[in-house]
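Record filed here:
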Amino acid sequence: MPAPDRYDVLVLGEVLVEIHADTAPHEAADGTPARISYSGDALNAAAAAAAAGARTALLAVVGEDELTVPLLRRAAALGVDVSHVRRAPRPNGAYLLCADPEGDRAFVYWRTHSAGSTLSPAHVESWRPLLTGARSLITSGITGALSDGAREAVLAAAEAVHGAGGHLTYDPNYRARLTGREQARELLARIAPLTGLLKTSCPADALALVDTADPRTAAARYRALGARAVAVTAGADRLLLDEGGEVAYLPVPVDPAPVDATGAGDCFTGTATARLALGDPLARAVAYGVAAAALSVSGRGGTGHVPSFADTAALAATARPGGGAGP
């Protein structure tokens, strides 16, 4: 059994209230049906890590509004330890989600002055024993773009984990509405040398951050910044893995009934990081991440369908010639 407060995966970031609507934002009208759920890249990744078998905790700041209790209850139901979550006298951030099988639609966010944006180095300092004892940490450029304090918190947490010999997974997840290109590039340059696995998209992230629409070139440029391994999603059907030797494309299994691609990249990140923390080699962990992401699109919302590891492993086995998810 693990020692108390020793985690396989910690996830530092933002949790959001997710409002599902049955129409596009520009078509919304009085009386449009909607329902509430909970998401955000940190919760999505944490849920996937827990489902993949890792002891997982969420490091986040949530609000003190009426949605906080059900938000935390949902995270706990997904297997995520929320005992270290902090609170702030601010509202929780929220966003409007519409059905999006391809993952391309722009969402509407309400996160200005949110509780999540108050994340700071002081929070990280309070979590330092957790960070230095953890096997791995997941964080993102979205978290670093929430505020100046959140940016410094991301760097402080990454340095703490890296300094203690832990693994860092970083997703730049560039969002022009949150941050400028130069700020995102500066954060990337500082955090890449601490990163064991950098997960990114091409062309979206790559054009903004490393000036290319070519996945191989993007991976090489991220590695030149210091990342030890890079996974580049290049459309819905392929992922490139560059770990400094062989560069290869991994097939992405196709879900026969896609509903919504929201959170698929976070599901990949959480699953792959969990399996790395549990001792799987990189190629196998990434194959599991790809399979989990493919399965996740059959649900609606960031945590609408978090696949079990049994299902993930079964699909990963079918995706390799001769079966098996190993390298």
Remarks:
- Residues 321-327 have pLDDT under 50 and may be disordered.
